[in-house]
Every structure is written in C-alpha cells, then in structure tokens.
Amino acid sequence: MSGFNTKRGFAFLVSVLFFGSLFAQESKTVKVGILGIDNYQSVAYTQLFNDPKAIGDLAGLKVVAAFPSIASSDIPESVDSLPKWKDALVKYGVKMVGSVDELLGSCDVVMIMSLDGRRHLGEATQVLKAGKPVYIGRPIASNFEDAVSILRLAEKTKTPCWTSSQHRFSPGFIGMKNHPEVGNVLGCEIYGGCPTVPHHSELYWHALHSIETIYSIMGTGCVSVSCTSTPVAESITGTWSDGRLATYRGIKKGAVKYSGTVFGEKGVSVTGVYGHGVPVKGVVPTNDKYMGYEGIAIEIAKFFKGGPVPVSIKETMEILAFMEAAQESKSKNGVNIQIADMLKKVSK
Fold this sequence. Notes:
By secondary structure, this protein is α/β, with parallel strands linked by helices.
C-alpha cells in the first residue's frame, strides 16, 4: 500500500512540475526591444503591448527598451518626430539604451522602427546575426537590392523575420479575400496615396500600402507588371498566372483615400476603408471599432510568442519584384515586365 502511495505521490509531483513549468512558459512576458523610434508605429505598438489591460493575443508582451539612434536630417518627419516619440515611449516605461548591443542584451525580440529605410540593412544585419526574431516596419529598405539582402540574411541565419504594411491586416481589406458576397476573387482595383521621396525607390514610401492590400486580397502568383505614369497618378497592372488582374492607382494629385473594388465569381464589392470592417451589401461600416494598427499588432504579437511569420519571405520577395517591375515598366514606356526577370537580378 505504501509503495502504491509513493508511486501516486511521485506521479502527482511530476504532474505539478510539468504543468507548473508549462504555465510559467505561457505566462512569461516576451521582452520587446525597438531599434529606431522616429516612426510613429514605435509608439502605436508600445501603447498596445504595454497596456496593463491588454487581453488575448496582445497580452504577454512588453516593450522594455529602445535604441533611439539619430534622426535622418533629410527627412523632416524624422527630425520632428524623434524627440516627440522618445518622450512618449519613456512615459510608457520604455528604457532608452545607448547602443544596439545594449538593446539586444535587454530583449527577446526586436522591432526595427526607424523611418528611414536606408538604415534598415545595417540595423537588420546586427539583429539577424544576433538571432533575435525581428519585425521590420515600413519600408523594409530604400531599394530592391537592400531589401533582398535583408531577406537573404534572414534565411542564411535562420532567424525569423518579416515585414508588412499595416494596411494588409486592416479588417475590411483582408476580409475581402473570402467575402461571401464576392466569392472567389477574380481581380481588384486598389487605390491610395503615392507620395515619393528622392532617397527611396518611388513605390517604397507609401505606395506599398496599397500594393500590400492587393496581395492580401489576391494572394501570390503575379507573373508580369506594367505601369503608366503621369503627374496625376501611377497606374500599375499586375497579371496573375491564372489570368486574374489587379490594378493599383497611386494618387499623386487630388483627394487621397485608401480603398478599392473587388471583382469575384459571385459579386462585385467595394473594399473596406482603412481601419474599418468588411463591407456588407456594398456598405462600408464606419461606426465600428477602428483597427488602425491593432490588426497588425495582433499578428506581430503572435509571431513574437513563437508563431510563424505572417508574411513569408517568398511572398515578400514577390511584392518587392512587383514594385521593381513596375519601375522598370515605367522607365520603358509601359511595356510588360516579367516578375521572374526581376528576381533573376538578385538571384543567389
């Protein structure tokens, strides 16, 4: 009888230790570090992750440290924002550190939030070589070659890494992919702002918001791209391998709005408006909960807790090639450019 009790006691102890360890792992707070803070997203995500009332996927993370780096003198927004966002982050309990090495020693995972994409290859290199899972805020880089170098290094170091516009996870946009009133998506026309800066490839600065929206609705499989450009707008058309078409209107002049139209086997519908929910019978809700940064913050949180990358390197490479092909088409008076040819330019 005493032997039986001993076995039961041992089994109970093992059970307590196992489930206690499991609970400790689940309840462990993921320490997040931010590299570069002059992008407002650094504040937006910190506000969500450091909220003591955070629940669900947003709970269990805390931004603990940030390396502010320096402002980019030729980007007025960077110069103006750096001190402002630094003060805001400190109020949320984020410690400012003096080097990237100090940042990496303070956290489990990293968000690269510097506004200037020219910095990202150097910043990402330090993080990836340290093996820290990383999310890189828009834009991933200032040009095609740097962006591809980041992704190649992530593959080489086997470090989880991804990037995305927040527009991809806006409920109304991503909800169009399986919209019951649309059915299988046959194509879409997406529009949004297209401001440019001289030190970044034209489509990297803001146009990528709408190009990512196209991919959230269409999925991968684009094979060729053409671009017509005027002082009023960029008009970019992608052809998918199954014959589907997607068009981006980059607004350079006039009123700016981020939305579009989706064409499907069952019906045609407007997309949602950025930050709002899925249209119902063609009506976009505007009195629902606004989900500007929260949609992507949830995906970042799940990733930082050990989940898969929400946007694969393969898909990101296709998006980059799409933008590169559009630029080449523009330089060649709108001829069709093959995605595969763009990828050959940066093949291993």
